[in-house]
Amino acid sequence: MLANVKNILIEAQKNGYAVGAFNTPDMEVTQAIVRAAVKLKSPVVVQFTEKTLDYAGDSVIVEVIKAIIDKESGSLPIGLHLDHGRSLDTIVRAIELGIESVMIDAAGQPLHDNMAITKRVVEYAHPKGVSVQAEIGVVPSMGEYDQNNTDWDKLMTDPLEAKWLVEETGVDTLAIAIGNAHGFFRERSEPDWKRLDMIRKLLPNTPLVLHGASDWMDHKVEEAVKRGIACFNIDTDLRIAFNTVLCKFTKDKCDIIDPRKVLAEARDAVQKVVEEKIELFRNPKQKENGNSK
C-alpha cells in the first residue's frame, strides 16, 4: 500500500525504531525491496534519484515502482520518495509525476541559500500535499573532499542552524551529518553522538534521517536509533549485492543467454541485503515479536 513517508517516519520515531529508505534504479531492485518488506512485515521507503528518472524515463520508472507496490505490498505501508533533488525544477518534475515526498538537497550551499531554496520548495510542495526533506551539514563523498584531511567539525550539522532551518522553512524531515559519509568515503572514526543528542533535543518532533549509512552495523545503528534517528538511507550496499552477481556471471566467458536468469539472482541478492537492514533497524522488542508495525 502506497503510504505517506512522513507518517511512516513519525511512527518509527514514536515507537523507537528506524525505517530503511532504499534506492532503486529499476524493476528488479524495486521488487527486492518490496518483497523483503512484505516478508518481514516492515514498512520501508522506496526512493529514486533524478539520474534514475533520466535513465529509465520519468513516467516509466515511476509507474513501474507504483505498480510493484500496488500488486505486492498488500496493506503494508510503503513510501515513495525522491532522493537528492538538487533544484526546484527537479522537485516540480517529481511532484508532477505524483510523488508525495521529495528531498531538496541544498546542503552544499551557504546556510541562507539552503534555507531560501528549501522554503521555496516547501511553499510549492505543501499545498499539494507533498512532504519535504531538507539536508543541513555535509555528508561527504569521494571526489568532493579529501578524506585524508577531513575537517569534520566544518562538515557536520550545527544543531542551532538545524533548528533555525526547520523553524524558518517548515520542512517535514531533516537529513543530518554526524560523521556519516556517502559511498566509500572514509567516515569519522566515531559518529558525534553528542551532536545528535543536541539536534534531537532541539527538534523533538522532526524525524531525522541519516544518508550514507549503508555500512553502519550493530552498535552504531542501535545507538543512532536510541538517540532519535528514524530513517537510514541505503544505496551502496544494494549496488554491491546486485553487481557482485553480475560480475560472477561475466568475469569469465558468460554462457548465459537469458538475462532474466542473471537479473533474478541479482534481485534475490538485493532482497537478502534489504532483509538484513530491516532486521538491523528494528528495536529489541520488535526483533522478539518479528514485526516492525
Quick rundown:
With 293 residues, this protein is of the alpha/beta class. 51% of the residues lie in helices and 15% in strands.
Q: Give the proportion of residues in helices.
A: 40-55%
Low-confidence stretches: none
CATH topology (fold) name = TIM Barrel
The average pLDDT is: 93
Largest β-sheet summary: 8 strands, parallel, barrel
Task: For the structure shown, list the relevant keywords.
293 residues, 13 helices, alpha/beta, 51% helix, 8-stranded parallel barrel
Describe this structure in words.
With 293 residues, this protein is of the alpha/beta class. The protein has one domain (2-289): TIM Barrel (Alpha-Beta Barrel). It is 51% helix and 15% strand. Strands 2-3-4-5-6-7-8-9 form an 8-stranded parallel beta barrel, surrounded by 10 helices. Helix 2 links the parallel strand 2 and strand 3 (44-48). Helix 2 (27-40) packs across helix 12 (259-281), helix 6 packs parallel to helix 8 and helix 8 packs parallel to helix 9. The chain starts with a strand and ends with a helix.
What does the secondary structure layout of this molecule look like, with pairings?
Elements: E1 2-3, H1 5-15, E2 19-23, H2 27-40, E3 44-48, H3 50-56, H4 58-72, E4 78-85, H5 88-96, E5 101-104, H6 111-125, E6 131-136, H7 152-155, H8 159-169, E7 173-176, H9 193-202, E8 208-210, H10 218-226, E9 229-234, H11 236-250, H12 259-281, H13 284-289
Parallel strand pairs: 1-4, 2-3, 2-9, 3-4, 4-5, 5-6, 6-7, 7-8, 8-9
Helix pairs in contact: 2-4, 2-12, 3-4, 5-6, 6-8, 8-9, 11-12
